[in-house]
Write a structure and sequence with these properties.
This protein is of the alpha+beta class. The protein contains 7 helices and 39 strands. The chain is globular, with a radius of gyration of 27 Å.
């Protein structure tokens, strides 16, 4: 509800400022009291909360052991690998006992996590002629220092890591040379890391846009805040904006959380130079990022600069993970229809498509625009209560997708390094995508926030089928200019051996129709934009998919034109004699 007068708005702003200042002051006093109390062990008083791990019941926690006296080099390396895997519990103190002083000083355990499959043989150790130890590790995924997850392709070559050792002053073998990072199996990784979106803003300042990361269950809030301040991943950088001033960092390596759930983010002094608009946007980003962290109970975020409250005067309310208002839309009897509570209802104001060989309908997020392919070469606009209008003619067009700005995305199946965006007034834009040069584009879908495009494309060889996600670079009027700017797209779904179609399930997840492992029949997979691929139950003869918001709004259609929705772990028929399902967006 809006205030009736400017005076009322000002009073509310002042009240909010007083509340924020009170909470910050109380939190700073609590932190100061905690530091002062370090001279003794407290024996009474309330139990405080902090940035600590919250594990799900039943999850095993790996334990680290000290080096065994007089252990041989292979045993030292093996013990170090185990201690590194368990190192989050003691901030890698035990793991460093396996290293020389010099190696301990230079080793960065958080540089990356190399994850190997739970069912594999694990790391294999071999002593080489020069006395070093070669460790061969099967790779399931790699997570970098910023929490970015990269899934390994099927049959990926194991990684080889070399450890150099020497005898220290006490006559014990210790590791003197090693790569940064740790190695752990998939089960330990699942116990010790959680996925979490770090939020930035669309260029027009209306939507929050996630950049999916994986953070340790220790210092989660600190890691997430630091990642946000560092900025978006390269592939997304040119498509979003941030309120964080360039180069700003946390003042200390901690984001404490009070017992009332308030996270205090204290920024370095140079952040004070930020303008008010940037402060407001950063506040919105931090709230969306930190209050949604798994395993934490953060309910509010207070920002300070060098301990001085940094007031956000008018925090923008940005849209987050928009839900389609209806759907799925389908084609039935050469007419556009929509499924409403299990019933297929023809769209009343949509013109019949008799004789046009219609396929692949698309509907804009606000449902004001509707298009369909006629045959392989024509893109038709379906105006309300009027005959279809040709928007674009080509040779073999990609099934369309419509973004929230009203641009219809398509292009030639055999790409020349571009896609095509066309508006309802027939304005046509060529959108640069150099990484698609010479590839066969199978499916294109724009995210509902309008900042990202997911593409399935194939190369010359049968196994060269990939899924890429790129940021949409637009001009000030929202007209798409290129995909990713100068950066390469993000490759996801590496576990898939084939893919034909995709759709956005939510802000960080794609549904992809394809195959993985040893399967011969395609099925729907859930593919995070930076995470492990998961196959859903197979329905024989699946030829198309659609996704609303979340796993309860997943649909597929089979070769017999039956529409099925996901019900628990299985699929249930909800309609027959339909094809090409799609949700708005």
């Amino acid at each position: 509800m809006r205030p009736a007068t400017r005076h009322g708005a000002a009073e509310r702003a002042r009240a909010r400022s007083r509340r924020r200042a009170t909470r910050v002051g109380a939190l700073l006093l609590a932190v100061a009291a905690g530091l002062a109390g370090c001279v003794g062990i407290p024996t009474s008083g309330p139990i405080g909360t902090g940035d600590a791990p919250v594990d799900e019941p039943g999850r095993p926690v790996p334990l680290a052991d000290d080096p065994v006296l007089d252990a041989e080099p292979q045993a030292i390396v093996s013990g170090f690998l185990n201690a590194g895997s368990a190192g989050l519990a003691d901030d890698f103190a035990t793991a460093r006992k396996y290293l020389t002083f010099g190696a301990s000083d230079s080793w960065d355990p958080r540089a990356r996590v190399l994850v190997y499959p739970e069912q594999s043989r694990g790391p294999q150790l071999e002593e080489r002629d020069d006395g070093s130890i070669l460790v061969t590790v099967p790779v399931q995924s790699v997570v970098d220092s910023a929490g970015r997850y990269a899934e390994a392709v099927p049959g990926a070559r194991p990684e080889e890591i070399v450890f150099e050792l020497m005898v220290d002053g006490a006559g014990q073998w210790r590791i003197s040379g090693l790569d940064d990072g740790v190695v752990m199996n998939a089960s330990n990784f699942d116990s010790l890391y959680r996925r979490a979106p770090v939020y930035f803003a669309s260029k027009d300042g209306t939507h929050l846009v996630p950049d999916l990361r994986w953070f340790a269950t220790t210092k989660t809030a600190t890691l997430a805040a630091a990642a946000l301040l560092e900025g978006p991943s390269p592939w997304l950088r040119d498509a979003v904006t941030s309120g964080a001033p360039e180069g700003v960092r946390l003042s200390t390596d901690a984001v404490p959380v009070s017992e009332t759930g308030v996270a205090l983010v204290d920024l370095a002094a140079d952040a004070a130079l930020a303008d008010q608009g940037s402060r407001n946007l950063l506040q919105a980003q931090l709230e969306a990022t930190l209050e949604g962290l798994p395993g934490t109970a953060i309910s509010a975020v207070e920002v300070t600069v060098g301990g001085v409250p940094w007031e956000a005067t008018q925090v923008p309310e940005l849209l987050l993970d928009v839900v389609p208002a209806s759907g799925p839309y389908v084609l039935q009897d050469e007419r556009l229809a929509v499924v409403v509570e299990g019933e297929v209802v023809p769209v009343e104001d949509a013109w019949p498509l008799t004789g046009l060989s219609p396929s692949s309908p698309a509907v804009s997020p606000d449902e004001s625009l509707r298009v369909v392919l006629a045959g392989l070469s024509r893109l038709l606009l379906l105006p309300a209560s009027a005959e279809p209008v040709t928007l674009l003619t080509g040779t073999r067009l990609v099934p369309p997708s419509i973004d929230r700005f009203g641009w219809v995305w398509t292009g030639e199946t055999i790409s020349h390094g571009t896609l095509t965006a066309v508006a309802a007034d027939r304005e046509v834009l060529t959108v640069a995508a150099d990484w698609l040069e010479g590839r066969a584009v199978r499916s294109v879908r724009v995210s509902r926030d309008g900042t990202r495009v997911a593409v399935v494309s194939a190369g010359a060889s049968p196994e060269d089928v990939v899924i890429d996600v790129a940021g949409v670079v637009r001009d000030e009027e929202g007209r798409p200019q290129s995909l990713g700017g100068t950066e390469e797209p993000l490759r996801v779904g590496a576990a898939l051996t084939d893919a034909t179609e995709l759709a956005w399930v939510d802000e960080v997840t794609l549904a992809v129709l394809g195959t993985s492992g040893g399967m011969s029949n395609p099925t729907m997979h859930l593919v995070p934009v930076g995470g492990p691929t998961r196959a859903l139950a197979t329905v024989e003869g699946t030829v198309g998919i659609a996704a609303g918001r979340g796993e309860r709004a997943l649909y597929l259609v089979d070769a017999e034109h039956a529409l099925l929705s996901k019900q628990g772990t299985s699929w249930k028929t909800v309609a027959t004699d339909v094809r090409d399902p799609v949700f708005p967006g």
